[in-house]
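Q: Sequence in, structure out?
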Amino acid sequence: MTAGDMKLVVVGAGGRMGQTLIRTIHAIAGARLFAAVERPGSPFVGKDAGELAGLGPIGVEVTDRPLEAFVEAEGVLDFTAPAATVEFAGLAAQARIVHVIGTTGCSADDDAKIAAAARHARIVKSGNMSLGVNLLSVMAEQAARALDAADWDIEILEMHHRHKVDAPSGTALLLGEAAARGRGIALADHSVRVRDGHTGARAPGTIGFATLRGGSVVGEHSVLLAGEGELVTLSHSAGDRAIFARGAVKAALWARDRKPGLYSMLDVLGLN
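A: Exactly. Output:
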């Protein structure tokens, strides 16, 4: 730890991703855990954040007062829930700090509030923080652009653990948006989320989603491009939540000296 380390706050510190973020910050040069936040009434409040994450005591006590933590910090890492993320975005804007958002399942209204907060905060928001997935999204966009919609159908398949609450996953939607950009269409007008019963033939130019849930799967995603007599599959498998945590810390360090605004992992990785 050095005086120049970026002071980071982890919200949702007691959750699986929160604990992973704490361990990751502890291991990455240039960053240090400044504060850990949990909701009021959480049994983790008052506990040592290092002990929660299996590191042993590190002298950072979990608090339920996020603004007090934010105003003295430089960035917040947030993999919580949409309502909490919108609240944290507002507080990050007040504190004029970096807000890295890995939360998925945000509504259009949530996204509008986050974008408004980005007038004062430096927000990096992505459906997936891993380098591999963001590279996959670039490949999906290029493939969708290269392969004619009249002859090639696009399907996105994803699987996650049994505890995931939103579907399709944020990563699946990120990949769908990339494919839609490649096709020059709006995903909202061309996505097919459910098939059941007598659906008729597949509508040309649509992008389909299939969602699987079960076990402890961290994340599996495939973009399938199906043509006459051939199938192209682009896929990514996540075996450890640490890949998302490392990406989030990388995003915070990247955004530290940026102007206020809303950024994505493609900006962080120089892929935009």
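The CA atoms of residues 119 and 271 lie 23 Å apart.
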